[in-house]
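Repro:
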Amino acid sequence: MNEALFIINPDGDLISSSTFAPNSFKITNNSSDQSITSITLDLSTAIFPDIAYDPDPSNPAGDSVTKGFEIDVDPSSNPQTSGVTSHTFLKPLADGGFESLKIDFIDFKPNQTLEFSVDTDPTSTKGAEQDTSKHFGSISGLELVGATATVEFADGEIITGQFYSVPNGDGTPNIKASQVLLTSETSTAPTIEVVGSADKATVVEANQTIRVSGTAGTEVSLLIVEGALYVENGGFDIDPFEANTALAVDEKIATIGAQGFVDIPVVLQRTDEANGGLHHIVAKYQNSNSLSSTVVLELDPTSVTNPGDIPTAVLNAPALNDLAQPYIFTVTYTDNVAMKASTINFNDVLVYTPDGTTLLPVSF
């Protein structure tokens, strides 16, 4: 059976570790008899958005420090004989950097390992000098959870999977490493949503509930990564809820119930009062290498003065001038925190004839 293990584990702690460091990426061919012909690592699916490879000093993707693809050879370890023939940065970004890297091999045999390094940066730091106090340009394996690895074997089989946190010996998630075990087995992912809130929202309460839906009786892992946004002079091309540094990580294990979902309570935090509180949450089945979509919740107790307000609806109904044509009107829903669009449907808007006896059909 074809199999490969891909690990991202730079030296350093959670804040300072960076894929710039030697031996940050490590892939081992665990296949029984097939060589690997190529590997592709796409960062565009990572749970932290807008992270790019940064190999070009003339047009950096992030801060002022760059580094291209480098094979790291440790003479004390098994010699690197994987036969790298070329590497190509793919999916270029308009403002510098690339989202994907492909490495081609001539003879990457079973039981051989390749270790390499390359600079990856959040694009929000473009134009900034490297900040050693916050290390906001430092990307570890944790920020790259969700990145997609694709490996092609000599027999033509192509296997794809997504990186996830590496468990420590005590079952807690590693604070800076991620990995993906690429196997021939079919992999699926659960879905997640926030109970009572939108899937991207600012919340004032630390206690939240994440609903994970999928196959009944299946064990799932829920990963909660608190992030922060550190930038200079307002940063570059900042999106809502964007973070560029992981501050903390937690993992919850649960089993999906007979009804097809499990509700998992989580406690959000704001480790850095000024910049933190941006929680990126994702789930997967145990022993799977496919991830759910990412939920992002920002904890900010000061964001509203009265979080208990209920949503309001305002009707805009123009004069009805032509009975032969469809009548178009609008209803605008607002809330001072957030609203979940999927909870609004045609059952919320009822239209009757003038005498109140006939309910008319409504479409959205």
